[in-house]
Amino acid sequence: MARAPRGLVDAGIRRLPSCSPAADCGSHPGGLRQTGGRRGMTPLDRTRVEKAAADCGFELTPVLDPNGALVLRSAMFPESVAVSVVEGGKFALTSPRPVLLGTAEFLPVVIQGFGLLYAALQKASATARTLPNRVAEKFHAAAVQMPTATEVERLVRLRVGQSLFRDALLDFWQGRCCVTGLAVPELLRASHIKPWSRCDSDEERLDVFNGLLLAPHIDALFDGGWISFEDTGALLVSPALPSDAAFNIGVSPSGWRISGLLDSHGPYLAHHRKHELRS
Q1: Confidence at residue 3, expressed as pLDDT on a 0 to 100 scale
Q2: Does residue 105 sit in the same domain as residue 177?
Q3: Fewest CB within a 10 Å sphere: which of 103, 142, 245, 265?
Q4: Residues of the chain scoring pLDDT < 70
Q5: Is there a contact between 61 and 54 (Cβ–Cβ < 8 Å)?
């Protein structure tokens, strides 16, 4: 099952059991009647949820479904997220595309308070905007406008593709280095896990799951094959990197870890460990 972004899990998000066939869970996937704690959405609740939705990238007017959940939508992507109010100042989130909520199953995700609701909705909209093929679709649309001279076309395509890829990574990782948390966009590098030159298609080159947003020193180490990462996010250091160099650079096996990996990153990380990490 895909992992939820670590920051959200540690902050208090929990998942509810999925519905059994006999349960009356409502029409929306992952309906919430089995929780026993859901209450109706008051006008104040609705106003605050609508404000959070608009602030987090769900700009279309939300609609109330038959089960009392507010369905959040955007013109930028077809996916939606439904928000229900649960007793105790909590919110329950479901989506027909569970990866938006960091899961591979239709499991309601319970959020404690508006701060975490904002974080979850921001992550959901960023994921929706950067799902596989979505960045590639933007690239192919832009390619129609590109020059046709062979070398010029190649350079323009490269620049446009890398710019779209970087924008997608900034969106997906919310403008922070996924290892250190550095949040200065001008310093961050859009690093391919499986290198651009080794990719088999534009879809692979522009897949947001084939990228990490990294601080410059970590990008240099990763791109050069001096370090890699496990599917869990744990750091791997190449035996070819001298220990004194690792110390001087500040390589930290216990402190450097990727937070927020999903299962879709796995095949690319496996490639990097097998083909890019120096032996």
Answers
A1: 42
A2: no
A3: 245
A4: 1-39, 134-160
A5: no
DSSP state of 34: G
Same domain, 76 and 195: no
Clarify whether residues 148 and 268 are in a common domain: yes
Mean of the per-residue pLDDT values of the chain: 82
At residue 23, the pLDDT reads 35
Residues 116, 185, single domain; the answer is: no
CB atoms within 10 A of CB 235: 19
Question: Which residues of 154-203 form beta strands (DSSP E)?
Answer: 189-192
Indicate whether 1 belongs to any domain.
no
* 112 phi/psi in degrees, rounded to 5: -95, 105
Residue percentage of the chain with pLDDT more than 90: 51
Comparing CA positions, the residue from 171, 164, 200, 8 lying closest to residue 93 is 8
DSSP 210-270: GEEEE-HHHHHHHHTTSEEE-TTSBEEE-TTS-HHHHHHHT--TTT-B--S--GGGHHHHH
